[in-house]
């Protein structure tokens, strides 16, 4: 039975050499086998996370016409409000039963002090994770950090409304998909619904575990590592119990390399097989995936 491991980050940040090496191995195994992990002791304050969840709820409670004034306009900017069913993460299914608000660094500075503080805290946590990834792949420890230093990350506030009417056939809260960037940090409430696909094709639940952050590997990291780290398909399903009457809230922090970073197979990942993917610029890849996501809505 495949399970998503729980890893204590303080053992990496504050541990001695042997403890750190053990955590690096655990992170390598998590990325290699399932592409998902839970991180304990992330260093992000519970109060700050609560403040951002509260901000998110108050934003999504606004009338639709007010939210639409900040509507997402194009994939080049990739910021603003995305309305219900506007996105179709699985192109073969109806639009997703969710609404979202995308924030980049510039927008975070203009919105609210808690949003900016959270964006910065997530950036710091992402850099720690990227450092561990680099060490796990026998690279200089700042290899990934320097290639993410323009902070092209997107903070995405998400709301999955309670269901008042039955969904369309095949419709879910978020269709099956993989993430586009290098890594994603996910903060979720306790309503549940997140599912992760294992290597054998089975779907397993990834419920909220108190005081943890979910971390998963994205497509660009999979390309960089020649499939040694997997960008795993995941989805958000509609609850089959009374929780269907509850809204679900989550916050995803999508880490993306600098646009001009060439994503080419790492030398340490060519030992077992020659490069699978041709080199691509990080910015071009993101653009192509966003166009595919929104182009059919």
TrEMBL record:
Domain of life: Bacteria
Pathway entry: Antibiotic biosynthesis
Alphabetical UniProt keywords: Dioxygenase, Iron, Metal-binding, Oxidoreductase
Domain Fe2OG dioxygenase span(s) in chain numbering: 151-257
UniProt GO MF annotations: dioxygenase activity; metal ion binding
InterPro entries given in the database record: DIOX_N (IPR026992), IPNS-like_FE2OG_OXY (IPR044861), IPNS-like_sf (IPR027443), Iron_ascorbate_oxido_reductase (IPR050231), Oxoglu/Fe-dep_dioxygenase_dom (IPR005123)
Pfam families for this protein: 2OG-FeII_Oxy, DIOX_N
Family in the record: Belongs to the iron/ascorbate-dependent oxidoreductase family.
Name listed for the protein in its UniProt record: Isopenicillin N synthase and related dioxygenases
Species of the source: Nostoc flagelliforme CCNUN1
Source taxonomy: Bacteria, Bacillati, Cyanobacteriota, Cyanophyceae, Nostocales
